[in-house]
Amino acid sequence: MPVFKYGFRANPQSESYRNPAVNGKPMPGSHEVMSMFSGCGGLDLGFLGGFTYRRTLYSALPYHIVQAVDIEDRAVETYRLNLGEHAIVGDLTEIPVRELPKCRLLIGGFPCQDFSSSGPKVGFAGTRGRLYRVLVNYMVEHRPDVVVGENVPHLMRLEGGKYIRAILRDLENCGYDFQLWNIFCPAYGLSQSRRRLFLVGKRSDLPGHPELPVPSHKARHLPIEDAIGDLTKVLDESVTNQSQYFVATKATAGGGQGDHANRRGELAYCIRANAKARIQFHYELDRRLTVRECARLQSFPDEFVFPFAAMTCMSHIGNAVPPIVGHHVAQSVLKYIQALDTGLVVASSCRTYQQEQQDFFTASNLS
Ligand SMILES: C[S@@+](CC[C@H](N)C(=O)[O-])C[C@H]1O[C@@H](n2cnc3c(N)ncnc32)[C@H](O)[C@@H]1O
């Protein structure tokens, strides 16, 4: 396993553009964020900004993550190495909500395995299906202005929408209005076929609503080689994590059940958290994708280091929100809270989930 000198937040190469909040010096006027289920920090890096991906700068945003919590100690170690000491190991179902910091924003990609199309689909019956309740408890206690939850789009379809309706009812019943943003990540510059469902809410007493970010790459998706083509001949750690890949079985494209051989000119298959379940092959070489190639396909910058064995790193990477997608969402939220602060009426053509449901049932009754 490679040994790393430093992570993203101490790397001299990223110093000129990274968010000073990762070194404990938040930008003046930053908005405080509480991060739940923070994993290795994909969504959090998106909110902080201050990183480059494919020679594009994703600028630092005036956010300051006061605390990040995750139950998995190695994910937290990766987070701390890269994004700061504000991440702690903890079970959010056991930490009294009063002990968490009161912040203006709450973000949290609650665990999705029990809702995922590639999981057991047991919903609330599963051990992780009700974890979204810790977001609700925080909202009741601390009343953040804005809440960003994240999960898999399959949640909308599971049992005809039963679960998503129950979750949104709980989230909205404590005085919030939510929208669902079903985001196809390639439309925002990701070279991977990945969809994510964002549950974006704001307190009901506040005007307007954050708006769905405008796609940056709607009609021009970037193929896999665009993200990892330059790594084809790199076999060492001159690019971090590039020497690591999962080698448990013979690397023969298509040899195992559920294997995926990527193709040049197309989007990569979805990067999964369980590298054993769905093995990703290189589009040109007779081997699996390396940890760095998976990280690239998830839009982590090369200075973001994954300090564990390949399987563990793949799981953290596969679980993450792609940072560039998180950055688009974070910018929309920022536009909204800045408009709130300057007293501008936020014009919004977006409709809340409850309004859409109301229209749906009204239309159904009429027909
Ligand atoms: C989908 S991942 C979140 C990934 C993260 N948003 C990112 O972008 O990197 C869900 C996370 O929830 C964590 N988790 C599961 N149960 C938890 C609990 N009871 N308390 C705290 N974290 C928990 C898992 O360890 C996992 O890292």
Count the E strands.
11
- Strand neighbour order, sheet with most strands: 5-4-1-6-7-9-8
Question: How many whole angstroms does the radius of gyration measure?
Answer: 20 Å
Mean pLDDT: 89
Helix/strand order, N-terminal first? EHEEEHEEHEHHEEHEEHHHH
Q: What structural class should be given to the helix and strand makeup?
A: alpha/beta
Strand content: 5-15%
Which stretches are low in confidence, meaning pLDDT under 50 for 5 or more residues running? Answer: none
Main sheet: strands, sense, barrel = 7 strands, mixed
CATH level-4 homologous superfamily of the domain at 9-217 and 322-366:
Vaccinia Virus protein VP39
* Gross CATH architecture of the domain at 9-217 and 322-366: 3-Layer(aba) Sandwich
Oligomer: single chain
Q: Number of DSSP helices?
A: 10
Describe the structure.
- There is one protein chain.
- The chain has 367 residues and is an alpha/beta fold.
- It has a domain at 9-217 and 322-366: Vaccinia Virus protein VP39 (Rossmann fold, 3-Layer(aba) Sandwich), CATH 3.40.50.
- The chain contains ten helices and eleven strands.
- The strands form three sheets. A seven-stranded mixed β-sheet has the order 5-4-1-6-7-9-8, sandwiched between helices.
- Strand 2 and strand 3 (56-58) form a beta hairpin.
- Helix 1 (42-48) packs across helix 9.
- It is globular.
- The relative contact order is 0.15.
- The mean pLDDT is 89.
- The structure holds S-adenosylmethionine (SAM).
